[in-house]
Amino acid sequence: MDLNLTAQEKESLDAFLKIVNEIRIQHNTTHMSAKTALKFLMARKFDIHRALALYEAHEITRYREGLAKFDPNSQPLKAELETGKFTVLPVHDSIGAAIAMFSAGKHFPNDTNHKITLQGVVYQMDIALEDVNTQRSGIVFIYNMIGSKYSNFDYELSQKILSLLKGAYPARLKKVLIVMAPLWFKAPFKILRLFVREKLRDRVFMVNVSQLQSHIPLAALPQDLGGQLQVNHQSWLQHCLQSQQSSDINELCSLTSSKSFSLNPNGGQTTTTDSAILAMNLSKHFSCDQQTNSSNGFSDDDDEDNSEKCSQILANNLIGDKNNGSILITNSSSNSSTTTISKTNKCKPDIISVPMYNTGQEKLDYNNKFNNNSSNNDKQLVMFDEVVVDQEEDEAEDPTKGMTVEEFIQYLKDKGKKGLQDEFFAIKAHGPDGTFEASRLRANQSKNRYSDVPCYDRTRVRLPIIDADDPNSDYINANYVNGYKHRNAFISTQGPLPKTFEDFWRCVWENNCCVIVMTTKTIERCRAKCGQYWPLDEESSLDFGQFHVHNNGVDEQNDWIITSLVVNDTKTGMTREISHMQFTSWPDYGVPRSAVAMLEFRVKVREYQANSTKAMGSLWKGHPLGPPIIVHCSAGIGRTGTFITLDISIQRLEKTGRIDIKGTVEKIRRERAHSIQMPEQYVFCYLALLEYALCQRLLRDVDLSGFDDSESELEE
Q1: CA dist., res. 628 & res. 633, Å (int)
Q2: What does the buried/exposed string (b/e) look like for 552-583 if buried means 16 or more CB atoms within 10 Å of the residue's CB?
Q3: Would residue 19 count as lying in a domain?
Q4: Containing structural domain, residue 146
Q5: pLDDT per residue over 420-475, tens digit each?
Q6: Domains: count for the chain
Q7: Looking at the annotation, which residues are catalytic?
Q8: Can you give the pTM of this predicted structure?
Q9: Parallel, antiparallel, or unpaired for β 403-404 and 658-659?
Q10: Hey, which bits of 645-703 come out as E strands?
């Protein structure tokens, strides 16, 4: 293969191959060919350091998104390819760049998932990248929005495609042309472009059909875009199938698709040599072969994104000396190591009828029951009017606390992603501020989903003792958490276990809760995250001790599922309606790429809570915002803490015009230990408030290029 490489380029090629193949050899993976290596080097102008970073990002991204290995002849990928929503045109532009086109009007988010759509894109891109001209000249990406509707648009998918192309795929992205963007697209587009480096931002153009011709010659434009090219997508797919026989194509991401990762079914471990540091870290993503968490297992909530750890470790182990051009591979130790494989459609809320107490005597009996079961020395009192966590007064809310929106933006610019992560680690370093005696009692340990996630004694939810011989029947792994100027606005709890289902419903009933927020799925990455504590199917019922729970209807949307539950206390005959609101768009790893869906879900939660409180009428004499909202994920700290932080921060911003995420997180961590579990969740809270401010037009477009602290850049 003669590509007329210069002597310096050949030297870079040899050095790159030496490093990569040493990693692959240690991991029993086939050698990378020079042809494949050149794709990474050309994408980074033969800068070895940056080509290695690209290779690492490529491997991690493709495994994380399920792009490591797939068959274009198998369903549902075959059907996805045949839609023609993404295609590569059989021509190049005037400078030799390939032309890829995504037709938004052909994409229906409800009919496919991100994984399959991305597989269709990457499969065709891999074929296109076999062309040397494409490797040298790059790719022009057309996002064709002609005839598309809001129902065709997938914000998160758009971010994933852009993130892949800008820093995790071995090709130069020359420009992005958004054709005939509708008005509704412009607001999310402003948010999307905030986190794009200025160099790429300058190459993103919104154009109409006539303007498109100034970027691409008529002969290279499809006829429906005003050009002369007659597109035959089926012919292109046939070419892809023929080209797929090339082993070089299959080399892309062969490390992550390798079957050589050996999982030890006994200990759940894999052994590697230290020089295979990248492969070792990638292997941490394998979790499906491990047993599901037991009730006393350790928490991996909430889906920590190991790719960031991979990046950090690789950066510490692949060291380049730019002074002499040498590359050194350093090992964390000289011995082999053993690594444990761990861890917007609008939905109209109904007026919810919530009969609380049939008579005034029932209210009196309710209060007497709790007073009789509570010690005089016990600081925690549970009252009908409002649950009180502590006799001490709430700390006075300083209206000047926090930052203005303008100060907030400057703070983001100054801190950057890494600065915010360091800020989180500083908060985390303070450790818990309280005791966990009840959680650690032998009788209660089996009631904890995770042994490393106990609940504070000071703020824990105490249930009425139902067995005089069992004083621990008051225990549930749950804590009261204050909202913004709202005592006990939330109950943060773990995902119920089968043995705690009845306790969970006692908690709901005794605290007069009318809204349950669930931010996890019951099963994720082959692991049990939460038990099925409510009847899943419409018109079905389940019994949990004295409570009969009936599913009265399900409203399923793109990002959440709202189930209307009718709960009957069979001992008293009283019935209440409870709204079970499950947010389903939190990805298996990390945090949502956009907060739009979460922000809309939060509005929906507040609507249901308000309607339920209004329906109680004079029976509710507590805070105007109603009784506690129960929020849970798996451990009840990560996603749960994130949701609560967003709600409190938005309320503060609406009331005072100020933002104090750091203070909010510190506060809720004093009420529910370990709330906000990962730095990614902490950063997400900041970016979600930014998206909220943009959507509410509290600020204009801002420049946060470089915020992500990424080493990847767009190439000339």
Answers
A1: 16
A2: eeebebebbbbbbbbbbbeeeeeebbbbbbbb
A3: yes
A4: 77-251
A5: 999 999 999 988 889 999 999 999 999 999 999 999 999 999 999 988 888 999 99
A6: 3
A7: 633
A8: 0.57
A9: antiparallel
A10: 658-659
